[in-house]
Amino acid sequence: MTTIEQQDAAELRARMVAGIDELGLGYLRLARVGEAMLTVERHRFVPHVSLADAYADRAVTTKPGQPGQQPQSCASQPSIVAMMLDQLDPKPGGRILEIGAGTGYNAALLAELVKPAGHVVTIDVTPEVTAGARAALDATGYDRVHVVTGDGAEGVPESAPYDGIIVTVGPWDLPPAWTAQLVEGGRLVVPLKFRGNSRGIVFVKDGQILRATSSRLCGFIPMTGPKQDGERRGQLDTEGEITLTWDLDQQIDTAELAGVLDRPAGVIWTGTVMRYASPFDGLWLRLAADEPRACRLTVGNGATAVIEAPVIPARTPAVVGTGSLAYLVQREIAADVDGTRRFELGAAAYGSTDPAERLRTHIQAWDADRDAHPTIYAYPADTPTEDLPCGGLIDKPSNRLVISYS
Ligand SMILES: C[S@@+](CC[C@H](N)C(=O)[O-])C[C@H]1O[C@@H](n2cnc3c(N)ncnc32)[C@H](O)[C@@H]1O
């Protein structure tokens, strides 16, 4: 690379970091994370794309998936990388395990953050991916990072315990090895899937229990493995354009919903108002905590005109009733005094209004305190129900998640 290209890369890196800061989401709260991102040369971990693409705030695919499927490997979107490093807050001297080595870029950032005495271990399930990560880490001076090939669900016990574990792939189940390999009080940052949604949760280890009081919306490519295939999908139309996604432990059967979309029962408007682009992801959490049949509705481009338009066609919160369905919609209302567009939330009802009425109650509970964050607990799977705290229960093969607002 010529000196001019190196200067270009440094300038693009600075712009990338400034862009993440300008999002105003607090991802660079820790100056150390921004400094690491200014130092590590991301383009050397994704050499097959242009410098501009290497420093755009986008994921870079390195191993495409089957047609219509998500990639099998990629370098994650830089702003999401920053968000998760902020959540993990790795300290100098810390011992960190990363699940999902990918290109090695995040492992290099971790190595910057824990240097000089810390240690980073990263594991990926695909040998060609770990070979690429190893080569890129060696070439960029991060040869102290330990790269392992294997199923991340097992962790890397020979280097445990870890002060922090960061999962850069999307699991559905939380493998017990992760809790076992953390130090007491250690952090597990994980984009966990539940109720059709995915959140980057910051768990802290407390004995056998993981406890989280903060999480943020974020999605990752799915983790492979025997216990990770717990999401279920079913279609509501013959073309497969309108689908529901739910969890294995939920009593949802799309056969019982046959023809439900042909029986519209109106929209229940809630009086809950959202300013343009303001977040409503807290509503997903409310639903996960309080609604046993909350799930995700996905509507393809071809079908958005067939039914009441969902609030975000690719992922809208929905509630299933008995032969009935409700999902979140919005309508534009008068703009705010400052000219900002505003929308009222509603629950579109199909089959009957029962689930829509429940959805309205959840929308209003969320609206009453939009910033409330529940405590999310992960207990071992064999914990008796009477020993669990109060809250919404989500059972997975390895854990019992409890989402509690009390
Ligand atoms: C989004 S990429 C990780 C990005 C990476 N941290 C980086 O900085 O480039 C997700 C990675 O997780 C890996 N993966 C998927 N299932 C896995 C599993 N069961 N164990 C370990 N890695 C897995 C994929 O092969 C993929 O490389």
Can you summarize this structure?
With 406 residues, the protein is of the alpha+beta class. 24% of the residues lie in helices and 32% in strands.
Structural commentary:
The longest helix has 20 residues, at 3-22. The chain folds into 2 domains: 3-217, Rossmann fold (3-Layer(aba) Sandwich), CATH 3.40.50.150; 231-368. The chain starts with a helix and ends with a strand. α1 runs antiparallel to α2, α2 (31-39) crosses α5 and α8 (281-290) packs across α9 (354-368). The protein is an alpha+beta fold and 406 residues long. The strands form 3 sheets. A 10-stranded mixed beta sheet has the order 5-4-3-6-7-8-9-17-19-18, with helices on both faces. Strands 10-11-13-14-15-16-12 form a 7-stranded antiparallel beta sheet, covered by helices on one side. β6 (162-167), α7 and β7 form a beta-alpha-beta unit. The radius of gyration is 22 Å and the shape is globular. Helix content is 24%, strand content 32%. The structure holds S-adenosylmethionine. The site of S-adenosylmethionine has 26 residues, from β2, α5 and β4. The site of S-adenosylmethionine (SAM) has 26 residues, from β2, α5 and β4.
Fill in the keyword field for this structure:
406 residues, alpha+beta, Rossmann fold, 2 domains, 10-stranded mixed beta sheet, 7-stranded antiparallel beta sheet, 19 strands, globular, binds S-adenosylmethionine
